[in-house]
Amino acid sequence: MTGKRRQRASIEALPAKKQKEDRRSAGDENGTSQKYRISLPKGGRVPSKTQKLEMSPTIEKFCGKFKKPEDSIHWIISNSKMTVDEFFKTKWQKSPFAMHADEESKDLAEIFSYNYLAELISSRGIELEPGLDFTTGKHTDKESQGERIHQCLTKENLDKALAQGDTVQIMEPHRFQPGLHALMSPLETYFGSLVFSSGYVSPPGGQLRGPHFIDEECFVIQTSGVSTWKIYKNKEVLSTSYSSDFKLDEVGEPILTETLRPGDILYMPRGTVNECVAGDNLSCYITIRTFQRIYWANYLSETLPQLIDSHERKSVELRRGLPLGFLPHARIDNNLYADYLLKLADSIRGDSDPVPVPEGMVSEFMSFRMPPFGLEIDTQTETAPTENSKIQLRHKGHFTYYKRSSQGYHADEGADEEGNEEPEKEIDIDEFELVLLCSVKNDISSHGIVELEPMTDDAFAIDTAYEPLIKKLLEADAPIAVSELKGINKDGKPLNALMLAQGLFNIGAIEVVE
């Protein structure tokens, strides 16, 4: 499992009929309809939605709450009167949990509400495109129906949709709501997982979906009005896929019913079967979702092939022949198969080499995560490092590196003057390199919306001999002079610290202090 993974709109945007047709469809591991996957062609446009928006004093104050990664999770569970440790020990991935505020919040309506959305599309000139930025629909006795607006969202068609009983879902509103960006970016660092959002405006009694579940941990934040949530018995604990709508006779009676008012927050683990109905007035809420594909089976599927390849050379047990007559039927007893998995486990336990990094998971996270809130970078106008510069990592939480097998010789680097390529050099399979990644220059306007390749421009590879210098930068509490970054390579030659500094500068990882 490598490289390209697909980001998608929340499955809550899909009408149930579409889900039934497309669930786990061929060639699509998420089961997401091609219709809802938004690709950005090379040279194409990212919708201009994130021009710098003025923040009200309320939003500025809200954004100021989130300085450290743990600040965001503290705010989310603050109604619970629990510590963070208590929440993760007793509730996380275990059971739904409603956290009611002591008094209704008036400020959250400025984060997301009907009035906020109406102002966004009418006064601030933000264009929201159907399918890409929003969808509408409602649940009837038969099924969920959607896709009623086929042009950019306006106040007129917003009001019309609500008048006919449709709920309006806004995909990834943190792209143009600084308050959500400020809340969610630290969460990505805290969770070590991509974090997505959706905003919902429902008319009185409105309902977008019937009982269903999704494949993400979900926090519901009620921002205005009232909504009632019914929770049903799980169909699959911690599901790694999503469902279509269930009929009521398929889910039975609710095991929990919670009414949310402004400031209330509801947590639902992956796979929680739920449905939501608006109260007697307009109801607005936000969902914050995370931990999609962040589970052990996914991690093992990416690292086991590398481990098997490595330990085949280290363990004679793994090199023993298969039973006589294995082919053509290729049947192995479950116990014997498990025995050899245990032999692999024993070899891993006794090995001093670290477990390989899941390169695809790391690359996806660093490529698609949000940039830090409030950080603007232009390496074209900033001062580049020199030998005499003092430098420091710009945002340690947005920088990482991992070791991989060297990619070796590139043919186009060795062509002679006549254009004839030199023969490819033999690559030593034991040679490694460091891949350095930084996400501070990621584009908030495309977060969770467009399909992109994992980062290339904002990553570079370097000899493993530079690892002590990188660690020194990570551990430093004060700027370090480039001239103080010293070391030697395996041939005993001095390392080029300026080259390292310039490479880190180009990907936005460091800043020149003096």
TrEMBL record:
InterPro entries: JmjC_dom, NO66-like. Residues 1-50 are annotated as: Disordered. Residues 18-27 have a biased composition (Basic and acidic residues). The keyword Lipid metabolism does not apply. Binds 1 Fe(2+) ion per subunit. Its cofactor is Fe(2+). SUPFAM superfamilies: Clavaminate synthase-like. Its main location: nucleus. It is found in: Nucleus. It catalyses: N(6),N(6)-dimethyl-L-lysyl(36)-[histone H3] + 2 2-oxoglutarate + 2 O2 = L-lysyl(36)-[histone H3] + 2 formaldehyde + 2 succinate + 2 CO2. Residues 166-303 form the JmjC domain. It holds the Pfam family JmjC_2. GO terms for molecular function: histone H3K36me/H3K36me2 demethylase activity; histone H3K4 demethylase activity; iron ion binding. Keywords: Dioxygenase, Iron, Metal-binding, Nucleus, Oxidoreductase, Transcription, Transcription regulation. Its EC number is 1.14.11.27. GO terms for cellular component: nucleolus. Oxygenase that can act as both a histone lysine demethylase and a ribosomal histidine hydroxylase. Specifically demethylates 'Lys-4' (H3K4me) and 'Lys-36' (H3K36me) of histone H3, thereby playing a central role in histone code. Belongs to the ROX family. This is Bifunctional lysine-specific demethylase and histidyl-hydroxylase. It comes from Tropilaelaps mercedesae. The lineage of its organism: Eukaryota, Metazoa, Ecdysozoa, Arthropoda, Chelicerata.
